[in-house]
Amino acid sequence: TDALKNRKIKVSAICAGFGGWLIATDEKNRKECMDTSKVILQAAGELGSYGMILVPGFNGQQPSLPFVEARAMLIEYLKELGEFALQHKTAVILEPLNRKEAWFLRQVADAAAICRDVDSPGITCMGDFWHMTWEETNDMGAFLSGGKYLNHVHIASRKTRNTPGEDEGDNYVEGFKGLKMLNYQHNVSFECGTIGDKKTVIPAALKMLNEQWALA
To answer: How far is CA 84 from the centre of its chain?
Structure first.
């Protein structure tokens, strides 16, 4: 926290960092995820971060429970984790991924439905333009399906996951329309690589995104 004093830089969402996974067949993997997530959530609160991004299970994290059992188990764990997050003035942010990375949670609407069933302000969700490219039929509809639970957004170029604007035809207008309709007040953070010179492509990306936001 001392490193952030008297600086304009603020911590937005903390991206993962936990061990284990919450839909694991083995209880020790689930416990590891709960224990390490709580450590991160406590730090998130101290740093003034509004959330820790959580993926319930990646494709490579096996064995995992079957879908129906996994969802029921996840909701029970998230009730506990959500209350812990609230105690530390932060939240859990569920992130849907594309099918190459995860089988369990792939659409914003699914994440929002889990948030609804947990029914805790400490459990929220997010949308990632990169993953949405492959899993959603419409960016605006995806964000609107997140509704009041949408707490964070990731952005990257639509084809190669580099800086926005580095892929021909990068377009975020429909998604921005959805965010505007929700009166979205949280951050849109870059989660991407870069092909060109960062000193050139990052300012160009910001210019393009501001123009597309104005069009939305």
So the answer is: 19
